[in-house]
Amino acid sequence: MMGICPHCKIELKKPPFNNRETNELLIVMNYRSKLDNKIKIKSIDELGYCEVCNAKIEEIKR
Ligand SMILES: [Zn+2]
C-alpha cells in the first residue's frame, strides 16, 4: 500500500476528494484487472480525468 493511485499518482488520502475513489484496494484491483486483460488505460490528458481513481485533471496537476 503506497497511498497513491498507480496511474495518476495522486495522493489518495489528501483532499479534495470530489467523488474520486480513495479506497486503495479497489483502485489497485481496478488497475490490475485492466493490465491483466490487456486493456489500455487512456491517458489523463486524453480523458481529463484518471480512469483508475476518477480524479480530475485539475486535482492531479496541482
Ligand atoms: Zn488515478
How would you describe what is shown here?
The chain has 62 residues and is mainly alpha-helical. 34% of the residues lie in helices and 0% in strands. It has helices spanning 24-36, 44-47, 57-60. The protein binds zinc ion. Zinc ion (ZN) binds at residues 5, 7-8, 10, 50, 52-53, 55.
Task: Briefly characterize the structure.
By secondary structure, the protein is mainly α. 34% of the residues lie in helices and 0% in strands. The site of zinc ion (ZN) has 8 residues, from loops.
Distance between the termini: 22 Å
Order of helices and strands: HHH
Tally the helices: 3
Please state the overall shape, judged from the principal axes of the Cα atoms: globular
The largest sheet, given as strand count, sense and whether it forms a barrel, is: none
- Strand segment count: 0
Helical proportion?
25-40%
Low-confidence stretches: none
Q: Which radius of gyration do the C-alpha atoms yield?
A: 11 Å
Percent of residues in beta strands: under 5%
For the residues shown, what is the average pLDDT?
A: 94
Bound molecules: zinc ion
* SS-derived structural category: mainly alpha
